[in-house]
């Protein structure tokens, strides 16, 4: 992934003999936000880029050459999203086809990654499974990040890896929800509702603007533009209003897990 924008920002800052904190103070931002932009993990909003131009005396260079959040770049790679999840104080996930990666059991993850096309070798699949399971350790912290999950009933009924794998996966969701570590709402099968065209992850932070990550067939996109993020947050809220309450969601998940085992 090219990070010419962030590298140029860093070079200009160092040319002026400024620290990240000094630039952050001038631009009314946080040091960590400057660090994320320089490392290519964030794209500043137009207003943020304008303040950076003023802080560094670069005219309108950072505004003019700011990467567009809807043209790929960061979004074509999941690594920046993984890093952002590590920093988030709140995450809200939506999944229509499969259980989100942060909540996958090892067996479920292995089955999902085993269906990749073109196929990958066993060694590569093992590497990817380990990486995905490592991501779930984010939930070892009992408090942060706060995690809400909105999941379509179809994702729970679709048999991935066999009935036992599905029952284990659903039981994992139930345990985390009952323990209060996550909040889970199931979207019952119905004709249509917002968000049906893919998955969505919303993230909030202590010291930087919120962002969103959407994913469809063979592509992923990281959204930093405030107007886009706000629209996706609103769509998520609308869909959440159509979902089952948590207690009803738990009851349905338990019933679906039993159905999987009954048909084993």
From TrEMBL:
<dbReference type="InterPro" id="IPR010982">
    <property type="entry name" value="Lambda_DNA-bd_dom_sf"/>
</dbReference>
<protein>
    <submittedName>
        <fullName>Helix-turn-helix domain-containing protein</fullName>
    </submittedName>
</protein>
<dbReference type="InterPro" id="IPR001387">
    <property type="entry name" value="Cro/C1-type_HTH"/>
</dbReference>
<feature type="domain" description="HTH cro/C1-type">
    <location>
        <begin position="9"/>
        <end position="62"/>
    </location>
</feature>
<dbReference type="GO" id="GO:0003677">
    <property type="term" value="F:DNA binding"/>
</dbReference>
<dbReference type="Pfam" id="PF01381">
    <property type="entry name" value="HTH_3"/>
</dbReference>
<dbReference type="InterPro" id="IPR043917">
    <property type="entry name" value="DUF5753"/>
</dbReference>
<dbReference type="Pfam" id="PF19054">
    <property type="entry name" value="DUF5753"/>
</dbReference>
